[in-house]
Amino acid sequence: MRIVALGCLFLLGGCAGAGAGAGTTPSAKQAPPEPPTPAVAPTPTPASPAPEASEPGLDKEEIRAVIRTAHDQVEYCYQKQLLRNAKLAGRVTVVFRIVADGTVDTVSASGLGDATVESCVAEVIRALHFPHPRNAAFVNVTYPFEMRSHD
């Protein structure tokens, strides 16, 4: 079994400014405007990334690092059922919420079609402790696990 990808949803708000003010009517005696002078583009310089601590929530890598610590437990959930059903394979998608203290307060797992594996994986994720989300009351996470036998 291996972890394929991580998808996190963060709801970000924004606002758009109003358009420019009222236009003016040129008088008949004004000279026509001169064509604009071509602008010289500045030499691009690499932008320095904003420090992660200023972004709300948790970074994907922070979440992955915690989930990696539970890899063996998640694999055990799958391997134990694989003994009963040798053809068991597919994806378990876990949807969970990390709250302000770093604990998981809601979790659900689905997609594989085996309730035993799904509930086992959900309980493993529920027991994890994540870093405290920055400037956010909670973080919603969707994390897929691809389940395949190693034979």
Concise description?
Helix 2 (71-82) packs antiparallel against helix 3 (115-126). The chain has 151 residues and is of the alpha+beta class.
* Broad CATH class of the domain at 2-10 and 58-147: Alpha Beta
Query: Which fold name fills CATH's third level, the topology of the domain at 2-10 and 58-147?
Result: TolA/TonB C-terminal domain
Discrete helix count:
3
Unreliable residue runs: 1-28, 35-54
Give the overall average pLDDT.
75
Radius of gyration: 26 Å
Measured as a percent range, the helix fraction is 10-25%
**Shape assignment:** elongated
Number of strands: 5
Description of the structure:
Helix 2 (71-82) runs antiparallel to helix 3. The chain has a domain at 2-10 and 58-147: TolA/TonB C-terminal domain. 19% of the residues are buried. Strands 1, 2, 3, 4 and 5 form a 5-stranded antiparallel sheet that branches. The chain has helices at residues 60-68, 71-82, 115-126; strands spanning 2-3, 7-9, 90-99, 104-110, 138-147. It is α+β, with helices and mostly antiparallel strands and 151 residues long.
Write the layout of secondary structure elements.
Elements: E1 2-3, E2 7-9, H1 60-68, H2 71-82, E3 90-99, E4 104-110, H3 115-126, E5 138-147
Antiparallel strand pairs: 1-5, 2-5, 3-4, 3-5
Helix pairs in contact: 2-3
